[in-house]
Fold:
Amino acid sequence: MPADIPGVHHVTAIGSDPARNAAFYTETLGLRLVKRSVNQDDVSVYHLFYGDHSGSPGTSMTFFPYPDAAPGRPGTGQATAVAFLIPASAVDYWLDRLADAGVDVDAPRERFGDTVVPFRDPDGLPLELVARADAPAGDPPAGPVPADHAIRGFHGVTLSLVDTDRTATLLESMGFDETASAGDRRRFEAEGDLGYAVDLRELPDGPQGRPGAGTVHHVAFQVTREDHAEWRDVLIDHGLRPTEVIDRKWFESVYTRTTGGVLFEYATKEPGYTADEDLESLGERLVLPEWLEDRRDEIEVELPPLDLPAAGE
Ligand code: ZN
Structure:
Protein backbone atom coordinates (compact mmCIF):
# COMPACT_ATOMS: atom_id res chain seq x y z
CA MET A 1 0.00 0.00 0.00
CA PRO A 2 1.18 3.55 -0.69
CA ALA A 3 1.88 5.81 2.29
CA ASP A 4 -1.05 7.66 3.84
CA ILE A 5 -1.90 11.03 2.31
CA PRO A 6 -1.19 13.93 4.73
CA GLY A 7 -3.82 16.23 3.25
CA VAL A 8 -4.83 18.55 0.45
CA HIS A 9 -2.08 19.69 -1.97
CA HIS A 10 -4.06 22.42 -3.77
CA VAL A 11 -7.62 23.37 -4.63
CA THR A 12 -8.53 24.73 -8.06
CA ALA A 13 -11.64 26.80 -8.68
CA ILE A 14 -13.26 28.71 -11.53
CA GLY A 15 -13.28 32.50 -11.39
CA SER A 16 -14.20 35.33 -13.73
CA ASP A 17 -12.25 38.63 -13.83
CA PRO A 18 -8.57 37.69 -13.31
CA ALA A 19 -7.52 41.11 -11.95
CA ARG A 20 -10.32 41.13 -9.40
CA ASN A 21 -9.47 37.54 -8.46
CA ALA A 22 -5.80 38.38 -7.94
CA ALA A 23 -6.60 41.51 -5.93
CA PHE A 24 -8.88 39.58 -3.59
CA TYR A 25 -6.53 36.68 -2.88
CA THR A 26 -3.35 38.78 -2.54
CA GLU A 27 -4.54 42.10 -1.09
CA THR A 28 -7.58 41.06 0.95
CA LEU A 29 -6.55 37.54 2.02
CA GLY A 30 -2.81 38.27 1.98
CA LEU A 31 -1.75 35.20 0.02
CA ARG A 32 1.18 35.38 -2.39
CA LEU A 33 0.74 34.96 -6.14
CA VAL A 34 3.29 32.16 -6.48
CA LYS A 35 2.69 31.23 -10.11
CA ARG A 36 1.22 33.05 -13.09
CA SER A 37 0.63 30.62 -15.92
CA VAL A 38 -2.07 29.38 -18.26
CA ASN A 39 -4.55 26.55 -18.08
CA GLN A 40 -2.58 23.81 -19.83
CA ASP A 41 -5.83 22.44 -21.26
CA ASP A 42 -7.03 25.87 -22.51
CA VAL A 43 -4.16 28.31 -22.95
CA SER A 44 -6.45 31.31 -23.59
CA VAL A 45 -7.11 31.40 -19.83
CA TYR A 46 -4.75 32.14 -16.95
CA HIS A 47 -3.95 29.66 -14.25
CA LEU A 48 -3.20 31.71 -11.12
CA PHE A 49 -1.73 30.07 -8.01
CA TYR A 50 -1.84 31.69 -4.55
CA GLY A 51 -0.18 30.34 -1.43
CA ASP A 52 2.30 30.89 1.35
CA HIS A 53 5.74 32.38 0.70
CA SER A 54 6.94 29.40 -1.34
CA GLY A 55 3.60 27.91 -2.38
CA SER A 56 4.07 24.89 -0.12
CA PRO A 57 1.79 21.89 -0.60
CA GLY A 58 -1.27 22.43 1.57
CA THR A 59 -1.36 26.18 0.95
CA SER A 60 -2.09 26.72 -2.71
CA MET A 61 -5.46 27.92 -3.94
CA THR A 62 -5.52 28.14 -7.72
CA PHE A 63 -7.93 29.58 -10.28
CA PHE A 64 -8.93 29.38 -13.89
CA PRO A 65 -10.33 32.94 -14.23
CA TYR A 66 -12.47 32.94 -17.40
CA PRO A 67 -13.35 36.62 -17.92
CA ASP A 68 -16.79 35.78 -19.33
CA ALA A 69 -17.57 32.82 -17.10
CA ALA A 70 -21.22 32.45 -16.17
CA PRO A 71 -21.83 32.04 -12.46
CA GLY A 72 -22.00 28.45 -11.29
CA ARG A 73 -24.02 27.10 -8.41
CA PRO A 74 -22.34 25.28 -5.53
CA GLY A 75 -24.15 22.03 -4.80
CA THR A 76 -23.98 18.27 -4.70
CA GLY A 77 -21.19 16.63 -6.65
CA GLN A 78 -18.79 19.47 -5.76
CA ALA A 79 -16.48 20.76 -3.10
CA THR A 80 -18.79 23.40 -1.66
CA ALA A 81 -16.46 25.11 0.81
CA VAL A 82 -12.71 25.68 1.01
CA ALA A 83 -11.44 26.32 4.54
CA PHE A 84 -8.25 28.19 5.42
CA LEU A 85 -6.51 27.73 8.77
CA ILE A 86 -5.83 30.79 10.95
CA PRO A 87 -4.50 31.08 14.52
CA ALA A 88 -7.19 31.02 17.23
CA SER A 89 -6.18 34.56 18.25
CA ALA A 90 -6.82 35.99 14.76
CA VAL A 91 -10.65 35.78 14.56
CA ASP A 92 -11.37 39.42 15.49
CA TYR A 93 -8.61 40.66 13.20
CA TRP A 94 -10.17 38.81 10.26
CA LEU A 95 -13.75 39.85 11.04
CA ASP A 96 -12.60 43.48 10.97
CA ARG A 97 -10.46 42.98 7.87
CA LEU A 98 -13.20 41.27 5.85
CA ALA A 99 -15.80 43.84 6.93
CA ASP A 100 -13.49 46.74 6.01
CA ALA A 101 -12.97 45.19 2.56
CA GLY A 102 -16.73 44.84 2.00
CA VAL A 103 -16.52 41.05 1.82
CA ASP A 104 -19.72 38.99 1.94
CA VAL A 105 -19.16 37.38 5.37
CA ASP A 106 -21.44 35.45 7.75
CA ALA A 107 -21.42 35.51 11.55
CA PRO A 108 -18.86 33.14 13.12
CA ARG A 109 -20.12 29.75 14.21
CA GLU A 110 -18.82 26.74 16.12
CA ARG A 111 -18.08 23.48 14.30
CA PHE A 112 -16.53 20.50 16.06
CA GLY A 113 -15.08 22.83 18.72
CA ASP A 114 -13.52 25.36 16.30
CA THR A 115 -14.65 28.88 15.42
CA VAL A 116 -15.52 29.02 11.72
CA VAL A 117 -16.03 32.24 9.71
CA PRO A 118 -17.86 31.61 6.40
CA PHE A 119 -17.45 34.14 3.61
CA ARG A 120 -17.46 34.32 -0.18
CA ASP A 121 -14.96 35.55 -2.75
CA PRO A 122 -16.02 38.12 -5.41
CA ASP A 123 -17.38 35.32 -7.63
CA GLY A 124 -19.38 33.82 -4.77
CA LEU A 125 -16.99 30.92 -4.06
CA PRO A 126 -17.76 29.70 -0.52
CA LEU A 127 -14.69 30.06 1.71
CA GLU A 128 -14.16 29.64 5.45
CA LEU A 129 -11.61 30.63 8.04
CA VAL A 130 -11.14 27.95 10.70
CA ALA A 131 -9.44 29.24 13.86
CA ARG A 132 -7.32 26.77 15.81
CA ALA A 133 -4.77 27.12 18.60
CA ASP A 134 -2.61 24.44 16.95
CA ALA A 135 -2.32 26.26 13.59
CA PRO A 136 1.32 25.80 12.51
CA ALA A 137 3.53 28.92 12.26
CA GLY A 138 4.05 28.16 8.59
CA ASP A 139 5.80 30.41 6.10
CA PRO A 140 3.47 33.38 5.57
CA PRO A 141 4.20 35.78 2.71
CA ALA A 142 5.43 39.31 3.31
CA GLY A 143 2.21 41.06 2.44
CA PRO A 144 -0.57 43.19 3.85
CA VAL A 145 -1.55 40.73 6.63
CA PRO A 146 0.77 40.61 9.68
CA ALA A 147 2.41 37.20 10.08
CA ASP A 148 0.71 36.66 13.49
CA HIS A 149 -2.69 36.68 11.81
CA ALA A 150 -1.84 35.28 8.39
CA ILE A 151 -3.62 32.38 6.74
CA ARG A 152 -1.40 29.32 7.29
CA GLY A 153 -2.75 27.26 4.43
CA PHE A 154 -5.77 25.03 4.10
CA HIS A 155 -7.71 23.56 6.98
CA GLY A 156 -9.58 21.45 4.44
CA VAL A 157 -12.60 21.19 2.19
CA THR A 158 -16.28 20.29 2.43
CA LEU A 159 -17.71 17.99 -0.25
CA SER A 160 -21.48 17.94 -0.77
CA LEU A 161 -22.72 14.56 -1.92
CA VAL A 162 -26.01 12.79 -2.54
CA ASP A 163 -24.55 9.76 -0.72
CA THR A 164 -21.32 9.90 1.30
CA ASP A 165 -20.53 6.19 1.74
CA ARG A 166 -18.28 5.47 -1.26
CA THR A 167 -16.33 8.70 -0.92
CA ALA A 168 -15.90 7.93 2.79
CA THR A 169 -14.45 4.51 1.91
CA LEU A 170 -12.07 6.11 -0.59
CA LEU A 171 -10.92 8.71 1.97
CA GLU A 172 -10.29 5.94 4.51
CA SER A 173 -8.08 4.12 2.04
CA MET A 174 -6.16 7.39 1.60
CA GLY A 175 -5.40 7.54 5.34
CA PHE A 176 -8.24 9.75 6.53
CA ASP A 177 -10.12 8.65 9.68
CA GLU A 178 -13.68 9.62 10.53
CA THR A 179 -13.33 11.66 13.72
CA ALA A 180 -16.72 13.31 14.25
CA SER A 181 -20.17 13.80 12.82
CA ALA A 182 -23.09 16.15 13.37
CA GLY A 183 -26.27 16.48 11.37
CA ASP A 184 -25.52 15.91 7.69
CA ARG A 185 -21.75 16.44 8.17
CA ARG A 186 -19.08 13.75 8.64
CA ARG A 187 -15.51 14.89 9.48
CA PHE A 188 -12.51 12.93 8.15
CA GLU A 189 -8.97 13.84 9.19
CA ALA A 190 -5.51 12.95 7.92
CA GLU A 191 -2.22 13.15 9.82
CA GLY A 192 -0.79 16.30 8.22
CA ASP A 193 -0.89 19.77 9.77
CA LEU A 194 -2.39 21.56 6.72
CA GLY A 195 -5.32 20.57 4.54
CA TYR A 196 -6.00 17.58 6.76
CA ALA A 197 -9.78 17.94 7.20
CA VAL A 198 -12.30 16.69 4.65
CA ASP A 199 -15.96 17.03 5.58
CA LEU A 200 -18.62 15.11 3.71
CA ARG A 201 -22.14 16.50 3.75
CA GLU A 202 -24.89 14.07 2.79
CA LEU A 203 -27.53 16.07 0.92
CA PRO A 204 -29.75 13.59 -0.97
CA ASP A 205 -32.19 16.33 -1.95
CA GLY A 206 -29.54 18.63 -3.47
CA PRO A 207 -29.44 21.18 -4.94
CA GLN A 208 -27.14 19.73 -7.57
CA GLY A 209 -24.00 21.74 -8.27
CA ARG A 210 -23.52 23.48 -11.58
CA PRO A 211 -19.98 24.34 -12.77
CA GLY A 212 -19.12 27.98 -13.40
CA ALA A 213 -17.56 31.00 -11.75
CA GLY A 214 -17.51 30.67 -7.99
CA THR A 215 -17.33 26.87 -7.91
CA VAL A 216 -14.50 24.45 -7.18
CA HIS A 217 -13.10 22.61 -10.20
CA HIS A 218 -11.10 19.96 -8.35
CA VAL A 219 -9.40 19.04 -5.08
CA ALA A 220 -5.79 17.80 -5.21
CA PHE A 221 -4.21 15.61 -2.52
CA GLN A 222 -0.49 15.33 -1.69
CA VAL A 223 1.32 12.21 -2.86
CA THR A 224 4.93 11.28 -3.53
CA ARG A 225 6.44 10.27 -6.84
CA GLU A 226 7.33 6.87 -5.37
CA ASP A 227 3.70 6.15 -4.55
CA HIS A 228 2.03 7.57 -7.64
CA ALA A 229 1.62 4.34 -9.59
CA GLU A 230 0.28 2.58 -6.51
CA TRP A 231 -2.33 5.29 -6.01
CA ARG A 232 -3.56 4.64 -9.55
CA ASP A 233 -3.98 0.98 -8.62
CA VAL A 234 -5.88 1.91 -5.45
CA LEU A 235 -8.26 4.09 -7.46
CA ILE A 236 -8.83 1.32 -10.00
CA ASP A 237 -9.57 -1.06 -7.11
CA HIS A 238 -12.28 1.41 -6.03
CA GLY A 239 -13.88 1.09 -9.46
CA LEU A 240 -12.64 4.50 -10.58
CA ARG A 241 -10.96 5.39 -13.88
CA PRO A 242 -7.84 7.46 -13.15
CA THR A 243 -5.87 9.24 -15.87
CA GLU A 244 -2.28 8.37 -16.61
CA VAL A 245 0.33 10.42 -14.73
CA ILE A 246 0.31 13.91 -16.31
CA ASP A 247 3.33 16.26 -16.04
CA ARG A 248 2.04 19.64 -14.81
CA LYS A 249 5.57 21.10 -14.63
CA TRP A 250 5.39 22.00 -10.89
CA PHE A 251 3.90 18.65 -9.92
CA GLU A 252 2.88 15.41 -11.55
CA SER A 253 -0.77 14.47 -11.35
CA VAL A 254 -3.32 11.72 -11.66
CA TYR A 255 -6.99 12.74 -11.89
CA THR A 256 -10.12 10.76 -11.25
CA ARG A 257 -13.81 11.62 -11.10
CA THR A 258 -15.01 10.13 -7.82
CA THR A 259 -18.32 8.30 -7.39
CA GLY A 260 -19.97 11.32 -5.79
CA GLY A 261 -19.04 13.52 -8.74
CA VAL A 262 -16.10 15.46 -7.26
CA LEU A 263 -12.91 15.53 -9.35
CA PHE A 264 -9.92 14.41 -7.26
CA GLU A 265 -6.30 14.94 -8.24
CA TYR A 266 -3.25 13.22 -6.73
CA ALA A 267 -0.36 15.68 -7.09
CA THR A 268 3.28 15.17 -6.15
CA LYS A 269 5.04 17.54 -3.74
CA GLU A 270 7.96 17.55 -6.18
CA PRO A 271 9.34 19.61 -7.87
CA GLY A 272 7.28 22.58 -6.62
CA TYR A 273 6.86 26.15 -7.79
CA THR A 274 10.57 26.98 -7.64
CA ALA A 275 11.24 24.51 -10.48
CA ASP A 276 11.33 27.36 -13.01
CA GLU A 277 11.52 30.61 -10.97
CA ASP A 278 13.57 31.91 -8.07
CA LEU A 279 11.77 31.96 -4.74
CA GLU A 280 12.07 35.74 -4.52
CA SER A 281 10.45 36.42 -7.90
CA LEU A 282 7.70 33.78 -7.92
CA GLY A 283 4.59 34.89 -9.78
CA GLU A 284 5.97 38.11 -11.22
CA ARG A 285 5.96 37.03 -14.85
CA LEU A 286 3.99 34.67 -17.06
CA VAL A 287 5.67 31.29 -16.95
CA LEU A 288 4.92 28.51 -19.38
CA PRO A 289 5.98 24.90 -19.33
CA GLU A 290 8.69 24.28 -21.95
CA TRP A 291 6.24 22.51 -24.25
CA LEU A 292 4.25 25.77 -24.54
CA GLU A 293 7.18 28.21 -24.60
CA ASP A 294 7.40 28.35 -28.40
CA ARG A 295 3.79 29.59 -28.46
CA ARG A 296 4.47 32.39 -25.92
CA ASP A 297 3.77 35.33 -28.27
CA GLU A 298 0.47 33.91 -29.44
CA ILE A 299 -0.55 33.02 -25.85
CA GLU A 300 0.37 36.41 -24.35
CA VAL A 301 -1.65 38.32 -26.95
CA GLU A 302 -4.81 36.44 -25.97
CA LEU A 303 -4.51 36.98 -22.20
CA PRO A 304 -6.03 40.02 -20.48
CA PRO A 305 -3.59 42.37 -18.71
CA LEU A 306 -2.89 41.52 -15.08
CA ASP A 307 -1.12 44.21 -13.06
CA LEU A 308 -0.53 43.59 -9.40
CA PRO A 309 1.14 45.67 -6.73
CA ALA A 310 4.62 44.32 -6.01
CA ALA A 311 5.05 42.38 -2.75
CA GLY A 312 5.02 44.63 0.30
CA GLU A 313 3.37 47.62 -1.37
ZN1 ZN B 1 -4.91 20.70 -9.89
